Structures are given as structure tokens and as C-alpha cells.
Amino acid sequence: MATSLEQVIGIDLGGTAIKLGRFSQDGQCLQSLTVPTPQPATPTAVLEAMVTAIAQLDPDQTAGAIGVGTPGPADAAGRMARVAINLAGWQDVPLADWLETQTQRPTVLANDANCAGLGEAWLGSGRQFQDVILLTLGTGVGGAVILNGKLFVGRLGAAAEPGLITLNPEGPPCNSEIGRASCRERV
């Protein structure tokens, strides 16, 4: 079981699907796999699905690290999914620690839209620009902002999350504490 950072596993955790890829250092996708997100998508059920999928994607454990994009903000250290707005019961879930324990590989978390923005800035349509704005449309609405070549996350870590913008201050409360905090600041 030789692991190295010559390959990494990237995971996109979504409300309906978990998408995984094994990548080379230069960003080439060597293998991919999509599995349904368990319903209900409890943290424990999602962890089990991820661990099983990782074992299928990389049975020889050649990838040396794991990165996970979560549907909501992660803590600044990249260890905890602070909230996953479209997944029930996700509040301060230590997903990186759990995955490291189960897979024996270093793991880091980040907001899925921020991961997409960084990917576009690195290898995609944004690579020739220093400033990039990206919108994601899926189970939710997300976004990323790259300013002067660096990811901008803002004070609460959700700077470019259009799904958290209050359109009707008298409407139903946001499902996210971060969304509620940003709503209070605007009202």
C-alpha cells in the first residue's frame, strides 16, 4: 500500500449524488465514480457511502490525500462541515477527521462552489484571468469569487453564496445559521 501525493482523490458531496475522482498532480482525472447520496443523508450514512466509494475508486490506495467539497461552508481549518444546507442534520460535522480515521489519508474540506472556482481558475476557463466569478447551479445555488488570483471567502466564509441572499426579509428563515447571520446584518 504505497501512497503518495502524486495522486489525490477529490469528492463533490451533493444533495443527490456524491461524485469522486482520482487525479494526478497536474489535474488530470485518472478515474471517476458517482454514487447516490444516501437518503436520508445523515452524516454517518454519507461517511459510509464515501468510504465505500473511495475503496472502489482506489482499491490499491495509491492516492495520498483527499479533498472534499461540501454544500455549504467549512471551517477555516478545512476540518468541519459547518452546515450543509441541503443535507438534513449537518451542523458542525467533523467530516475530515472522520474520513482520515476511516481511510488513513490526510483530508481537507472546503465549500463545493469555492472548489469549483479554484478549479476553473487553475485549469478551466478562468486560468487566463486574475479575477473570476463562478456560479454553481445544482440542488442549491452557490458561487465563488477569485480576486487577484486568490479565493475570497469573506468574514463568515460564505462571501459568494447567492443562495444565502435574503430576497424577502419577512419570508421563511434561512436553513443556515450563516444565512440567518447575513440576513440579520442586512435588515
Give the helix tally: 4
Number of DSSP E strands: 10
Strand residues, percent: 25-35%
Number of domains: 2
Largest β sheet strand count, sense and barrel closure: 5 strands, mixed
Please tell me about this protein's structure.
The protein is an alpha+beta fold. It has two domains: 4-112, Nucleotidyltransferase, domain 5 (2-Layer Sandwich); 128-186, Nucleotidyltransferase, domain 5 (2-Layer Sandwich), CATH 3.30.420.40. 25% of the residues lie in helices and 33% in strands. It has four helices and ten strands. It has helices spanning 43-57, 95-103, 112-123, 177-186, and strands spanning 4-13, 17-24, 29-36, 63-70, 81-83, 91-93, 107-111, 132-137, 141-147, 150-152. The strands form three sheets. A five-stranded mixed beta sheet has the order 3-2-1-4-7. Strands 8-9-10 form a three-stranded antiparallel beta sheet, with helices on one face. Strands 5-6 form a two-stranded antiparallel sheet. β9 and β10 form a beta hairpin. The longest helix has 15 residues, at 43-57. The radius of gyration is 17 Å and the shape is globular. The termini are far apart. The model is unreliable at 180-187 (pLDDT under 50).
How would you briefly describe this protein structure?
With 187 residues, the chain is of the alpha+beta class.
What are the main properties of this structure?
alpha+beta; 5-stranded mixed sheet; 4 helices; 3-stranded antiparallel sheet; 2 domains; Nucleotidyltransferase, domain 5; disordered C terminus; about 25% helix
